[in-house]
Predict the 3D structure of the following.
Amino acid sequence: MTSWKCANCGYTLEKETPPEECPSCKEKCEFLDNTCYTPDCDAQGTDNRIG
Ligand SMILES: [Zn+2]
């Protein structure tokens, strides 16, 4: 399962693919891959737009 984070409101959800519309802010947001965001997981590739 992949974790996704809404770029607009920060809502996260776990799904195989990101939804078209954010369930939280009801916008067609960009969802960022939030699966692995700790430095330990660097090699696995993290969306660098997530600080
Ligand atoms: Zn949102």
About this structure: The radius of gyration is 11 Å. Residues 6, 8-9, 11, 22, 24-25, 27, 29 surround zinc ion (CB under 6 Å).
